[in-house]
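Hello support,

Our group uses your service weekly, and this is the first time we've seen a run hang past the timeout. The protein is tRNA(Ile)-lysidine synthase. I'm not sure whether the cause is the sequence or the server load. Input pasted verbatim:
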Amino acid sequence: MATRSPRAPRGSKAARPNPRDERLELHAERLISAHELIPREGSLVVGVSGGPDSVALLDFLVGYRTRHGIPQGDLVAGHVNHGLRGEESEEDAAFVEEVAGRLGVRFMTSRIDPVARQRERGESLEEAARKLRYAALRRMAVAAGCSRVAVAHTADDQAETILLRLIRGAGITGLSGMRPLRRLHGLEVVRPLLTTTKRQVLEYLTRRGLTHREDSTNQTTDPRRNFVRLELLPRIRRMNPSIQETLLRESALFAEVDSYLGAEAGRLLPNVVITRERGKIELDAAGLLLYPEVLRKYIFRYVLRELNEDILDLSTAHVSALHSLLTSRSGRSADFPMGIRARRERGALVFTKREGEPERVEAPSNA
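Update from on-call engineer: The timeout came from a worker crash unrelated to the input. Re-ran successfully.
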């Protein structure tokens, strides 16, 4: 169903952000400036579900382009129809198309079938939908002639993500939360609203008099994220009313450590490289063992990313396998996604990548 915020006077473009207020525009423009989220040239696909966050993001970016002249190409409203809610899903697609037309931006849509993928691959429905959704957005970006997609994750989503990862068990990178800009299997994903709260989004919609859709499935407690949102966080707030701010603050600290260790791994990598060529990197095993285990993990991740030419996250099992190879005899090997293999040879740990892999890596849910 469509929900309209109370009507407010609306000008032809969004107001310039005031540094003394706490409006969506202020937070989004600060984040865009700090991380250069919006490309100057070319187009930008904006993922729009029809919900309040994505409608606010699309409307804001239209105003941002009016004020700053970027992106210089098209803004494209990209809608992915998951087909999970029957007629409601069809109404969502029609609604987003109407919003795009009203704002004067191009509209693209794609239909996916997460239920079929769930059956085929044994993934959770949420994970299947997420992977198919990003694949659909990547196809839209290719069709629009760009490589960057903006999605509407907010500070509330960030806090929920951090808590979910803490419950499941995550390392430093996972507890750093979502990043404002991240390369994800051939696609640059930007999150301009990541420091904007849901309250600020709703205030923006009210001020702009914008209509949005309500997803009835958000009111269930079946998905893990909805359980955290509707059950767990309200209970924690009884002990700490500022739990969201606490989670975001802790995440920023983890992100700082993660960035430092990543940079340190890049600095130290030449000290242990024996051979470095396309499709092959050979590391000195004895030299690796001189570094703390946590740094070895970041060196491994750096190597795998270089070979894959994209993000390739390591699971705990992958890290354990690599550490085991370091202290094992020659001849042992371990395989990784995207055709990458690590093999223990005399005095060395050799990483190779097969050419011509059919599809890019799908990042885990921590992405």
